[in-house]
Amino acid sequence: MPDEEKLFKSPEEKKREEKLVEEKPTGGVEEVKKKQDLEKLEEKLEGKTSVLEAKPAEKPEAKREAKREAKPEAAKLEVKPKEKEKKEEKKEEKKEAKLKREVVLERVYSIPLASVYAKPRSLRGNAASRLLRKFLAKHFKTDESKVRIDVKLANAIRARGSRRPLKKVKVNASKDKEGIVFAELRV
């Protein structure tokens, strides 16, 4: 056994252990610390196994089987089918609500956004969105809070980044009975 312990010790551990054995403790605190260091070293050595005692490597087939067994557990963590159905129903309701919208007024505008370039670069993207919203609210005679900008339109405005928004954009805008204005990109 003593030979095996020497095999697993690093040079630093050997030096440390030799110092601890050679030095005689003078004070109580130092003595306790040295004993603790020795105990830690012994625990580390007990945890290590020799090359001969090492376990053989697992076969790839065994690893695959373990993964297959773990998959059903992961499936249990997935969203329940009822919850998925509820989400799909909500999406369908939203789509139907958009289709049910009774359009009162529909227009096509070419909105100039070049005046945004007078602002600092970092504020231009947000300013362009505000300008678009303000323009539509004015021309459809509604409040700015009732103007909805389509995602595709918002992305088109910032296509070159927030610092360099488009200078002009063509928009299909429609107003419904509630006074909500919906703006889409004209293709």
Mean pLDDT comes to: 80
Number of strands: 4
Gross geometry: elongated
Strand order of the largest sheet: 1-3-4-2
Could you please say which CATH topology of the largest domain applies here? Ribosomal Protein L31e, Chain: W
CATH superfamily of the largest domain: Ribosomal protein L31
Which radius of gyration do the C-alpha atoms yield?
36 Å
Poorly predicted spans: none
Question: Care to describe what's here?
Answer:
The chain is an alpha+beta fold. It folds into three domains: 2-47; 56-100, no CATH class; 102-185, Ribosomal protein L31 (Ribosomal Protein L31e, Chain: W, Roll). The chain is 53% helix and 14% strand. It has seven helices and four strands; from the N terminus they run αααααβαβαββ. A four-stranded mixed β-sheet has the order 1-3-4-2. The protein is elongated. The termini are far apart.
Draw up the topology in text.
Layout (H helix, E strand, L loop, with lengths): L1 H7 L2 H12 L5 H20 L12 H18 L3 H20 L2 E10 L11 H16 L7 E3 L1 H7 L10 E9 L4 E5 L2
Parallel strand pairs: 2-4
Antiparallel strand pairs: 1-3, 3-4
List keywords for this structure.
about 190 residues, alpha+beta, Ribosomal Protein L31e, Chain: W, 3 domains, elongated
How would you summarize what this structure contains?
This protein is an alpha+beta fold.
